Amino acid sequence: MGAASYQRIKAHVLGRIADGTWREGDRIPSEPELARSFKVARMTVNRAVCELAAEHALTRLRGSGTFVAPPRQESTVVALRSIDKEIHDRGGVHQAEVLALEAVRASPSVAIELGLRRGARVFHSRLIHREDGRPVQLEERWVTPAVAPDYLAQDFTRLTPSDYLVRVAPVARVEYRIEARSAPRGFKRALELVDGEPCLLLRRRSFSGGGVAAITELWHPGLRYRLTGQF
Which CATH number applies to 83-221? Predict the structure, then answer.
């Protein structure tokens, strides 16, 4: 119960920061106030607040209280560009097909990466992005509900998940890796891969407001796509 409670408090605080209720420099309720609101022991609140301070979402000032911290800005080699903008810049026509948009229970691995308890409710989406009618990217994403509570209500054929999340949960930091992978059978059909064609998989974890906002897997046909970046 204690672990679930402190995660609930963290999600509440991050949600208030993400939706603009609490802004940079605002003082959040004291630990005794939060303990009364959530009907938990003060040590449970203290654990949540200490972790959020360690994650740079909050700043604790002795004798003054706890405040919303300024965002940390970090750059990455791979720019967070939406696929529709990449396609338009190449002179192509972008189309998106939503294959899944749902609330699911987090698998153990997804829960750990999102910083949630096992089996917690998360938002899941899967899209195929096409350039001039040909599939160039399969996007799979798991989103923390607290940072994007209206995620499931969006029309992702008109607005990409990347653009929506940047709007509601500005990215402070990204972890990513790129690897060559053989796609699962269903992904092969969706991407119209030829026999033996590998995929380029870009997997990233995005942070916003001191917590993990989303895990994203971007699958690309190896013979039709390349990833580039610059320092």
Answer: 3.40.1410.10
